[in-house]
């Protein structure tokens, strides 16, 4: 600790003032919208490192990129923006050269409109060597402004051209309030830590007194966490049924799971009309016995490759009937046992059911599933939405569009929807600013986000990147659960958490360290003169033992610390002379 912070610690106000000012400039801005707005919004971070971000100085700082033309325009209300027109190629637009610093994280936002139609506009950073860093995309339309939110991690130091792309060369690209804000890794981490402290923990106040309300000072309060409230889980497969090593490794760490393949249609009905749930049932029973929650994965998978062998050749009416039987069978079988269903897996990348049964096929399955079992959250479950800024098939904007369509379908207006984000990252540096921006956009839908299949492909820094992905997920306020999706140690080990003997790999160590970091170690605190003590605890279940300072009589209680009771207060009453003290806990 240096002298300056030491002095500050004595002067509490000084720290608040100092860190308060610092954070204002650097705090990440989570605001995002999925609406196309006629009333536009302000520029984030004052534009960050962008020169003339709001075009109030004409097009100063901006250039023509490619062959089109670029000019400043004015809305009827007098707001200035930039327009690229007479475009010939998809990347003909306006650009600005920005200086990137290797390793820095860049949060990007812009308001986009096109002169006609409705299409995906994406943003890229072009390096002097011609390499492209993809910063994100939005579906833009005419008549209103859409928010593009994204980001990059710079993999080199030097200049890059920020520019916009749209396939349709007839459309003009319009933009306003373009912002690019750099963060160091340290600043990013500090923001994560602040969110974790705010969103995942609550202050608990203990008041210890005699029956006559006189405070007891110096009473000892032993606090032991017995369960975490944040669902952190791991996918399992059928090998768990006959391996106690696997069972012990899994049950001692996780509170939620999903099965790799065992609930899928191709596993439970290999032959038409011959359902076999033996393995899935046994796994459900095992998991239930250990009080671990289950995400049902999945009812349908929209990828034509992963249908039961007999399904692709069915005529539409037959498929409709078979699908109805499937959904009824599996949903009723596990009714009341699951916290979630992945109803139609990967329905952004694929459209097997839409092609065969019509545009509303997925939407209808969500309605049926919810009608059969009201309690599970009904999820979309997609890859590349937060992990890949380049894949235009599953951008946050497309995710939002699909989910809105599902919700508009008759019967789905009150659907308890869930936003499933597979989070299957490649082997390189995860694009955390993009991941966060994508989650911000999706969070604007106000449904819970889950990282459902967290995975980082094999590469040099796999364990470190896995940690970065899990931490980014945990520190997003809208994320309500994470399931890690390792590959089985019995098969090709792309991301094993353990070896064949269930000893941790470095990836497994990362997971254990995070579980440890996100829970409270057993601790003892003492009450003040006022019989009072306050502490910040991770949400979860606790066993609390309060011991009288003189008589050493003690009382033990269970305590649930939740987010909703942000003013948790626990009142403990003790009797001075009776060895078994009585208590009341008000939570
Ligand atoms: C850009 O921000 C200004 C205020 O700073 C606002 O008046 C303007 O409408 C915004 N433009 C868009 C397209 O959001
Ligand atoms: C940075 O990443 C981009 C996109 O993956 C790639 O094209 C480029 O070669 C990389 N540059 C360096 C210096 O690694
Ligand atoms: C309350 O009870 C405690 C323990 O019996 C006693 O020491 C204390 O004096 C009492 N206080 C009042 C105000 O009666
Ligand atoms: C457990 O059973 C699976 C088949 O369900 C088998 O492949 C595996 O080898 C068995 N493992 C052990 C440890 O017996
Ligand atoms: C169902 O599956 C189990 C496990 O694979 C197998 O042992 C059993 O023979 C199957 N039952 C039928 C009727 O095929
Ligand atoms: C599961 O929860 C029940 C009820 O809370 C409890 O009695 C039981 O001991 C728990 N089982 C395990 C394996 O934790
Ligand atoms: C899909 O459902 C919507 C209602 O959500 C309806 O307006 C539309 O006509 C349906 N489309 C098809 C192809 O059935």
From TrEMBL:
One of its GO terms (molecular function) is endo-1,4-beta-xylanase activity. It holds the Pfam family Glyco_hydro_10. Gene3D superfamilies: Galactose-binding domain-like, Glycosidases. The keyword Hydrolase applies. GO terms for biological process: polysaccharide catabolic process. Residues 216-514 form the GH10 domain. Residues 1-20 form the signal peptide. Keywords: Carbohydrate metabolism, Hydrolase, Polysaccharide degradation, Signal. It comes from the Eukaryota. InterPro entries: Galactose-bd-like_sf, GH, GH10, GH10_dom. Belongs to the glycosyl hydrolase 10 (cellulase F) family. This is GH10 domain-containing protein.
